Amino acid sequence: MPIVSLKSLHSPSSTYSYGAYRFISPNQSRLRIIHNVHSLLHVIIHHHQPKSKPQIMFVHPWMGIIANIPTTVQGGKHVGESGRKLREELTEKGFNPVRVHPLWNRHGHSGFAIVEFNKEWDGFNNAIMFERSFEADHCGKKDFYRSRRRRDKLYGWVAREDDYHSRGLIGDYLHRNGDLKTVSEKEAEDQRKDSKLLTTLANTLETKNMHLKEMENKCNEVSQSISTLMEQKDEMIKAYNEETKNMQQNAHDYLKKISLEHERTTQHLYDKKRKLEQREKELFHRKAQNGAETRKLKHEKMMNERATLEQKKADENMLRLAEEQKRETEKLHREVIELEKQLDAKQALELEIQRMKGALQVMQHMEGDGETEMKTKMNAIEEELKDKEEELDDLEELNQALIVKERKTNDELEGARKEIINSLKDVSTPAFHWCRENKKTAKQCLLWQEYLWDPSWHPFKIITDKEGNTKEILDEEDEKLTTLKTEFGDEVYTSVTRAFAQMNEHKTSGSYTAPALWNFNEGRMATLAELVEHLLKQWKQQKRKRCRRYF
Questions:
Q1: Burial of 41 (0-12, 13-18, 19+ CB in 10 A)
Q2: Is pLDDT above 90 for 335?
Q3: Which of 353, 359, 485, 521 could disulfide-link to 493, CB 3.0 to 4.6 Å?
Q4: Residues 6+ apart with CB under 8 A from 138
Q5: DSSP states of 115-172 as a string?
Q6: What fold does the segment set 30-177 form as a domain?
């Protein structure tokens, strides 16, 4: 008979040679293990049974029998090795029994013990090795029943059908703790379990895949919708910017044309008035005045007064338009505030919708059979979500309208601000009055102006107050600032530090200066309303001066 290695399913290091078959490692697939075990059982059956009985019935869970356990008499009872000690000895040999149960009768230890192995195929492999080990030492089942001089040797074999139906302690124990099964029945039972498990896993996997595909389709639809909306938004913004730019350019050109015409008319009237005054003086100093020339002079003077009156009316109209512009600006400012409130409400509503969607998805994943309360909650959330989405659509329409109006207002105000700043550049106050006194101070002014524009110089430090709030303040220990204070005094030092603090506070263009409206009385940036009020005040003063010159 050929001999090959037979590896244990539970302990790869233990081997047993029998037949032309081999047990493989438990890391291989379970079906292959079952197939190999089944093949091995055919060899074992063929070796032990006649060909007319191919099916051998084993006790399941797999059990072995140990016989001829040495006993001694103590206190009138037979005592022998404990099941724990026998189990440890068998484990050291690599058989890995689950437990060893000695059999007792009314006289004490019977000298027999039942060895229980794992229910699976690795336990069957250990049981076969257990039996083969005893047979190799001529201590098998046949040897036990044939030998008359057993001495102290242990005998062992695997429990089969004849042991199961035997009378006595062994048969009773096997009846109580096991049943008879053939290898084919065990294999069929395992195949049924595996088939059921595979079917369940396949159904679960298919369900998960379908759900995954649905989620992917939804994500793709949402992504496509978002991309389309973003493209539409970009197109609308581009068209709006082009239209706004054209409208601003047209309004700017028209206003510039009116301003030039107004200046030419005013200059013409002023020149004409000056000529008339000169001519009046000449006629006054003439001793002989012609009556016709006097009437003509009075007529021209009257016409000039009428023209002056018309100019006055035009100036009053301009004042009225400026006041209307101021009121319109305040109105638009209120609308901007309302827009911000609408935007805050919209964002809060969007967050609430996202939260409800998340809760709905969680409940959908948690949904099970019979969970009526969960379904009721989901329906309520879906109804509330639908109402929230309708409310969001209404807010979206209102928000778009307010955004268009706000952008138009901001563009108009920004254009007006830039035009006013350009007009006031010639009358802006210098940063350092002391630098104009002589050449040396002028050079120092230019030097410190370069210092202020230098982005690498940042004489500020950050401090933390008692409440934990951080604040950026000027570093009075900076080397350049201390040198400035020492050489030029506190007045110059105060002017420079104030200017640098203002630049750092507003930071309109990094560390570089940019034109801005400034309220010198309060030391802050001026608003557009304050600028309009200032221009109206200057215009009224200029008008009074012109009226005095005319008369």
A1: buried
A2: no
A3: 485
A4: none
A5: EE--SSHHHHHHHHHHHHHHHHTT-SHHHHHH-S--TT--EEEE-BHHHHT-SSHHHH
A6: Alpha-Beta Plaits (3.30.70)
Closest to 160 (Cα-Cα) out of 202, 184, 128, 136: 128
| pLDDT > 90? residue 386 | no
Return the SS3 of 16.
coil
Residue 391 identity = E
Phi-psi region of 447 (alpha: psi -120 to 50; beta: other; left: phi over 0): alpha
CA distance 159 to 115: 9
Lowest-pLDDT range of 161-170, 246-255, 341-350, 508-517: 508-517
CB within 8 Å of 171: residues ≥ 6 apart = 163, 164, 165
- Integer Cα distance of 279 and 299 in angstroms: 13
Query: What are the structure tokens assigned to 74, written together?
Result: 């103590």
Q: Output the six-digit token pair for 370.
A: 């019979």
Instruction: Give the tokens for residue 134.
Output: 């005893």
Q: Domains of the chain: which residue ranges?
A: 30-177, 257-427, 433-519
Contact 130, 72 (CB under 8 A): no
Given a contact cutoff of 8 angstroms between Cβ atoms, the answer to whether 6 and 22 are in contact is yes
The pair of structure tokens assigned to 140 is 């098998």
Quickly state the pLDDT bin for 340 (edges 50, 70, 90).
Answer: confident
What gap in Å lies between CA 209 and CA 204, rounded to an integer? Answer: 9
Q: Cβ–Cβ contacts within 10 Å for residue 500, how many?
A: 21
What's the pTM value of the predicted model, to 2 decimals?
Answer: 0.30
Residue whose tokens read 């759900």: 211
Phi, psi of 434 (to 5 degrees): -70, -15
CA angle at 19 for the pair 14 and 23, rounded to the nearest 5°: 40
Q: How far is CA 404 from the centre of its chain?
A: 31
| Dihedral over Cα of 351, 352, 355, 360: its sign | negative
Tell me, letter by letter, the H, E, C secondary structure of 482-505: HHHHHHHHHHHHHHHHHHHHHHHH
* Number of C-beta neighbours around residue 356 at 10 A: 16
Q: Which element (helix H / strand E) includes 111?
A: strand 108-116
Taking alpha carbons only, the member of 390, 392, 361 closest to residue 378 is 361
Specify whether the CB–CB gap between 503 and 452 falls below 8 A.
yes
Sequence-distant (6+) residues with CB within 8 A of 353 are: 385, 388, 389, 392
Helix 372-424 to helix 183-285 angle (10° resolution) is 30
CA distance between the termini of the chain? 145
Residue 424: predicted pLDDT: 56
Residue 463 phi, psi dihedral angles, 5° rounding:
-120, 160
